[in-house]
Amino acid sequence: MRAAIIGAGVIGRGWACRFLLHGWDVVVYDQDPATPGQLNKTLQQATQALHALYAPSLPGSGTLSYAESIATAVIGADWVQESLPESIELKQAVLRDIAPYLGQDVPLASSTSGYKPTALAAGLECAPQLLVCHPFNPVYLLPAVEVVGSESTRADVLTDAMTVLRHLGMFPVEVRREIDAHVADRLLEALWREALWLIKDGVATTEEIDDIMRHGFGLRWAQMGLFETYRIGGGEAGMHHFLEQFGPALAWPWSKLTDVPVMDAALIDKIARQSDAQSGHLSISELEQQRDENLVALMRALRSTNQGAGRLINDYLDPRL
Amino acid sequence: MRAAIIGAGVIGRGWACRFLLHGWDVVVYDQDPATPGQLNKTLQQATQALHALYAPSLPGSGTLSYAESIATAVIGADWVQESLPESIELKQAVLRDIAPYLGQDVPLASSTSGYKPTALAAGLECAPQLLVCHPFNPVYLLPAVEVVGSESTRADVLTDAMTVLRHLGMFPVEVRREIDAHVADRLLEALWREALWLIKDGVATTEEIDDIMRHGFGLRWAQMGLFETYRIGGGEAGMHHFLEQFGPALAWPWSKLTDVPVMDAALIDKIARQSDAQSGHLSISELEQQRDENLVALMRALRSTNQGAGRLINDYLDPRL
Q1: Phi, psi of A130 (to 5 degrees)
Q2: Among residues A174, A204, A239, which one ends one of the domains?
Q3: H or E element at residue A117
């Protein structure tokens, strides 16, 4: 099997590594001359992490090559993944270039975090094969991927795509209704805005917010998410009772929740300064290394608690399903 | 050392277990006749979890007793923890009852998730010893605790309280500016509102949202939080550059982010029904058991990656500091 990776920024490189380490051949198209060097580095990190997570069950790696044109990348590919910057004009232009070379049943997946697939597909002849597959950084390690079809996406293409993603060790969640930013980035944006207010108003620093998250609700959300956690919070009285109690608080006058903060130079400076104080003693590579070691350990830990029907612990921990 | 636990709902029971299992004697005051039975059950869960996390370094348990009055609970206590329902009138009435029996240097900590300590302390003679210590459920297991002093809180009481919390294996974060709901519940409320919209608008179910969270950004936030994660996302170009790029998206017309959803009967029914479909095959006890096993495994995993200066992995993993 062969994947064409169109655009090799952080997300595209992550996809390339995930495909390679699950045995696919990968052809990368990106005109930035720095791409091979950056991808080699990401591949080293990913190889170390995935071997720690899956060994000895990981298959042999596929082969990596680079294409000089979109045509040579896409011809013969069994999967095409577009991971260009978030500009709909740019994405549509490249999707239009891809179309003539796309095999007839091949999924054409966009990593877009913001655009609806129907907006992306407008006027494109490849629309029936186009869908959104929005992953999470680091793509080679985090299992979740949001899969969104457009009004034109063929049902069999969507189904096949879900199967391929599961074979790549991912946990695809189909989002059945199109909205800007899908599901995850809606949630992330809401929390991010509120965090910006907390910084701007001097309530907490970047480090204090991170500490409260990772020693508090971050640990909860790594294993149960929001609703199952609150279900427990409600106790034996049940979710219905819990929600009835919780409802009135939504109308409390926490006005900052509903304003949009202005990201002006002063706020940017403040956050960047606090972040430097928090993490500036480590390079990005060192932070990535720490993150990956932590994620591997967390995912191995969740595998170890594989309870009951394994509902909480996931298929993604076995790449051979 | 002896702690007085005033109010033994889910949060009060969690505090009681944390104190007991770290060697403190605990006196509980709660007029609900179901309290001893419920607390015994929580204590079994907590004992199992903390032994799995800390053994063999956990000290012997303290003794547990029940008081018939606030006076007998508070007299001789080295820490008083109030965990009553979120009603400021109720809390103030009980804090007023506690005051005459409070030792002169003893912290009087409120578990309130919503009220500012200065609002709680208004007109109370115990104000100099009153502070907010807002924990996370399950309190016996999750390390984070938000510590907020009022305008009247004595500096030495605040400092001593931070030390005690660290000795209880917690990770206290001092919130230096008072706002309604402190830090964590501001962030939680923002994400919760957005999640309600996603359910109400039929974009995703409770289970799909939970899956996207726990296989995606939940794993990220269990170990690095928000800002360090984004720092990595920004790459070598740095946080300043990342923020400049990200800024414009804040003004995008994602209007649902800034509306307040109405928690009407239809929405309550929808969420409760989806939650039942997701988790109704398990009792709350079974869910708690799964949660605790997962949390213990995650925390052990983070201890195992104790990198560099140990900044990412925390003091809370060694209760003997």
Answers
A1: -90, 135
A2: A174
A3: helix A117-121
Tell me the C-alpha distance between B118 and A111, whole Å.
48
Domain boundary among B141, B174, B207: B174
Q: How far is A201 from A208, CA to CA, in rounded Å?
A: 14
| ipTM exceeding 0.90, yes/no | yes
Element (H, E) at A191: helix A184-200
Give the strand pairing for A130-135 and A144-149. Answer: antiparallel
Domain enclosing residue A235, as ranges: 184-281
CB contact under 8 A, A240 and B202: no
Picking from A239, A243, A300, the nearest residue to B263 by CB comes out as A243
Which of A213, A231, A251 is closest, CB to CB, to B275? A231
Model confidence over B218-251: pLDDT tens digits? 999 999 889 988 888 877 777 887 787 765 555 5
Number of domains in chain A: 2
The residue of chain A with its CA nearest to that of B264 is A247
Please report, for residues B93, B130, B131, B147, B153, the alpha-carbon distance to residue B150 in angstroms, rounded to integers and kept in the order given: 18, 8, 6, 10, 5
Q: What is the pTM of this model?
A: 0.92
CA distance B113 to B133: 9
- CA dist A233 and B157 (Å) reads 31
